[in-house]
Write a structure and sequence with these properties.
Structural class: mainly alpha
Order of helices and strands: HHHHHHH
Distance between the termini: 30 Å
Strand content: under 5%
Number of helices: 7
Helix content: over 70%
Shape: globular
Number of strands: 0
Oligomer: single chain
Radius of gyration: 18 Å
Length: about 220
């Protein structure tokens, strides 16, 4: 009974607490950053009142990473490092998706922390360091070029997001993420144009499609 508690119940409780605290913390941080850069944002949707009052935002930012951690346990067994990595990746990528939908921006400070954690993981594990660095550099460079060529078809947040994700996903998974994200984002953009909910001049967030695709692939393939 004690063995079951230590290996199953206690870790689950820890992740539930982490999910609530970190999800709330990141959401509060996003709200603070949105107010800090309010004058620079094309779209500003404030989170009114306390974060606890934004129950749907808190549910998304806190509960979904927990579900991803549980899925990692189901797919890969009781491997604590993998479960933790999946939790961290999903926590940040879900947050990036929320900020891109709410304010059409992915905040640099949050991206920097996400990239730093990815680099730390590579240094600690000693595996895939070169592949991760190459994926990050090439992904950033290619999307920077695409942003220039398409004249804003991809934003600076998308460029930096792909670079940061390269540190976590590596070259193979990042390539699949980019292809699938562009396809899904392109389909959604086309539907919005057809239904006249968006015009050609309107900003369309690709970041959430890269983030969600990368999160799922990392969950399935984490090692």
């Amino acid at each position: 009974m004690w063995h079951i508690f230590l290996n199953n119940i206690m870790p689950l409780g820890v992740f539930i607490i982490l999910g609530c605290l970190l999800g709330r913390g990141l959401l509060s941080w996003s709200g603070a950053l949105s107010r800090e850069y309010e004058s620079e944002l094309d779209t500003f949707i404030p989170i009114r009142g306390t974060v606890a009052e934004s129950r749907w935002l808190l549910a998304i930012s806190g509960a979904l990473p927990l579900l991803c951690a549980v899925a990692a346990y189901i797919f890969h067994g009781l491997q604590y490092p993998n479960i933790l990595y999946v939790f961290i990746v999903s926590l940040f990528l879900i947050q990036f998706s929320l900020t891109d939908f709410l304010w059409q921006v992915i905040f640099d400070k949050q991206l920097a922390l996400f990239a730093l954690l990815g680099l730390t993981r590579l240094l600690l594990s000693g595996q895939g360091l070169m592949d991760g660095l190459v994926a990050a550099a090439v992904g950033f460079a290619v999307f920077l070029l695409l942003a220039v060529i398409t004249r804003g078809g991809f934003g600076g947040g998308d460029v930096k997001l792909v670079g940061a994700m390269g540190l976590w996903l590596g070259s193979d998974l990042l390539l699949v993420t980019v292809i699938m994200g562009i396809i899904m984002g392109g389909i959604m953009a086309l539907l919005l144009l057809i239904t006249k909910k968006r015009s050609r001049k309107d900003y369309f967030p690709y970041g959430p499609y890269f983030a969600i695709t990368g999160m799922v692939l990392f969950l399935l393939c984490v090692q």
